Amino acid sequence: MRKVLLLCLLTAGLRGAAQPTAAPLTARLDKVSLTFALSPAGQPTYTVSYGQRAVITPSRLGLELAGTPGFDGQLQLIGSEVKDADETWQPVWGEVKSIRNHYQQLTVHLRQAQAPGRQLDIVFRVFADGVGFRYEVPRQKDLTYFTVQGEKTEFNLTGNHKAFWIPGDYDSNEYTYTTSKLSEVNSADITPIQEKSAPNRVQTPLMLKSDDGLYVNIHEAALVNYPALMLNVDTKTFGLTSQLVPSATGAAAYLQAPEHTPWRTVVVADNAPAVLASKLILNLNEPTTLAETSWIKPQKFVGVWWEMHVNKASWNYSDTGNLKLASTDWNALKPNGRHGANTANVKRYIDFAAKNGIEGVLVEGWNVGWEDWANNWKEEVFDFVTPYPDFNVAELQQYAAGKGVKLIMHHETSGSVTNYERRQDQALRFMKEHGYDAVKTGYVGRIIPRGEHHDGQWMVNHFNRTAENMAQRQIMVDMHESVRPTGLHRTYPNWLASEAARGNEFNAWSTGNPPEHETILPFTRLMGGPMDYTPGIFQIKLEDWNPAQNKGRQVHTTLAKQLALYVTLYSPLQMAADLPEAYEKRPDAFQFIKDVAVDWDDTRILAAEPGDYITTARKAKGKEEWYVGAITDENARAQTLKLDFLTPGQRYEATIYADGKDASWDKNPMSYQIRKQKVDSKSTLKLQLAAGGGAAVSIKPVSR
Fold first, then answer.
1. Regarding beta strands 253-256 and 145-151, do their DSSP bridges make them parallel or antiparallel, or are they unpaired?
2. Which residue in 315, 303, 306 sits closest to 362, CA to CA?
3. In what order do the strands lie in the sheet with 672-679?
4. What is the pLDDT of residue 475?
5. Going by C-beta distance under 8 Å and a sequence separation of 6 or more, which residues neighbour residue 457?
6. How far apart are CA 429 and CA 587, in angstroms?
7. Percent of the chain with pLDDT over 70
8. Are 672 and 657 in contact (CB under 8 A)?
9. What's CA 548's distance to the chain center, in Å?
């Protein structure tokens, strides 16, 4: 690791000597500069510029405390420091082999102007691609336990930018994105997934584009012991103000000094690919403390899952309702004959995985309690250790081990987190005893403790505590219906992925995801970390699985685009989400899923525009193989790719999985073609993407 740390005092005054008329303080790196100042009323403010262009105009900062004067009134500057840091670190897994963490840090020390004169620090880090800042409350005799009611954090923008946004629902991120001007942000007519949002409240990450071509992304990093950040949009001034997700009591966060908030992040660039390439959020998270990480294995998996979404099977073993977990004789229930997680069916998936070199098999619906699990706000839902009568845990453990395949556990909580926390240690012991080293958790529905939100402090602490608990037991985790990621996979590399957005499953049982959806996700949800989107659906028209219940339903992409998503939507945990028989019908296209890597040494964003298209190239970990994914929105378009990222002098064979000439997402989505050609670093590839389509390319070295 290479480190350079330079420390110098920025102010002439000693810390503790207030400066009522202090000059503005500045930190900068390359084109990005930040200026801190106190307003005439003594309120802290900041600005951000990119070259000669303003990004954030003077915007207020501060913490509002409950029941006591906070840091939102008159403050005095009592000192400051600036330092430069430059280091390189290696992630356990990721999009690149190594990451440079280069920034200039400005720390300002503030004190309340009135008694008791408590202190607050604000720490700014300026990177070449943006800014991060957070509030730090130092240890002090006049402030120990305190309650944050809200923040005065503002992001005042320079104009009526184009915005890619979803409503500020405190309990769900599973919305399609609206593209509009800031002046048009209004979710009043959007049907809530969980809880109705205030009309002008949106979630982060918020992606913006200015009229003069600046790309701005606002989010947060290292969300620990604090609620998630939402943004209230002023549709007239184009200012954004912070809104913290409240707890059941209405307060935002209960803290004890010394303490700090998450980082507020602003990524800025003059081109869209640079936003996707940013590692600013990841760099603002703490390194992992795990001494041994070889057990953490990025992987592909299949599973008993999609067949339930397409109404070919069920999660529940019986159709009997109104059951109590402790008093039900599960062996006496009448089977419905549709239960997907039965021993014979799971063996079928294990066989398919073993045959095709896929490491894992997820099984949902294996455990008792699914008969009345949803929408009842019921506390005692699952026990996470009792299988249904037709699921033989020991037999499947031995069968999978004999095939060299790992079973992936499923822990759905139905939002009853108190129940899960009571039972989690027992559930994890059960996993280890039966050979499971990865688990998918779920939090569908309203949260228990009642009144808490998915994105509030209580649940944030649960998600992080769960990741920590599983890390100590060497268990990998994929969390669904969780708070959106903020780069904590650097701290908890066993936290491989999350859902926390509208995934591929919505194509099975709703109006679906519009073709532009996957071109927006990397600029929004994926800015904070990997997503378990569950790509790879080959049977695009869903009526074939169940004509009566799936009439008119389909995935809103072409088959070739489903392949491209393995590259454009980054995750170290990728599902081949369709049924085995769908892949067995098209083994030539399935070859790409078998080949594509899930861990990478290098990533190049070759072309991108949010809401329109993305083309990404990635180099497989430890190999001379590259994979390319290109996707488009509802518009057909051509892409010409220079392959200058390839090693000069090396010859390769490119296999191009492309849309058929007559393909389109709505009329002919399963039309595809495959061709091969020899290429090198001087070659170009021409790709023709159908409406709602894409292309996937594997590039492997060959001898001359």
1. antiparallel
2. 303
3. 600-609, 613-620, 626-632, 694-702, 651-659, 672-679
4. 98
5. 225, 226, 227, 245, 247, 252, 253, 254
6. 39
7. 97
8. yes
9. 35
Q: Of all helices (H) and strands (E), which one includes residue 689?
A: strand 684-689
In one letter, which amino acid is 471? A
pLDDT band at 511 (very low <50, low <70, confident <90, very high): confident
Q: For the packed helices 457-472 and 417-433, what is the interaxial angle rounded to 10 degrees?
A: 10
**138: preceding bond cis by omega (within 30 degrees):** no
Instruction: State how beta strands 684-689 and 613-620 pair.
Output: unpaired
**Alpha helices of 435-485 — where are they, by DSSP H?**
457-472
Closest CA to 672 of 687, 661, 659: 659
Mean pLDDT of all residues in 212-221: 98
Could you tell me how far CA 375 lies from the centroid of its own chain? 25
Pick from 8-17, 357-366, 500-509: least confident? 8-17
Of these residues, 505, 516, 518, 625, which one is catalytic?
505
CA atoms within 13 A on the CB side of 529: 33
d(CA 636, CA 639): 10
Q: How far is CA 308 from the centre of its chain?
A: 24
pLDDT digit string (tens) for 119-138?
Answer: 999 999 999 999 999 999 99
Task: Check: CB of residue 642 under 8 Å from CB of residue 699.
Answer: no
Burial class (CB in 10 A: 0-12, 13-18, 19+), 138: middle
Coil/strand/helix, residue 594: helix
Q: How confident is the model at residue 7 (pLDDT cuts 50, 70, 90)?
A: very low
The verdict on whether 421 is a catalytic residue reads no
**Cα distance between the two ends of the chain:** 38
pLDDT for 8 equals: 37
Whether the pLDDT of residue 21 is over 90: the answer is no
Residue with tokens 């095939």: 403
Does the pLDDT of residue 649 top 80, yes or no?
A: yes
What pLDDT, on a 0 to 100 scale, did the predictor assign at position 23? Answer: 84
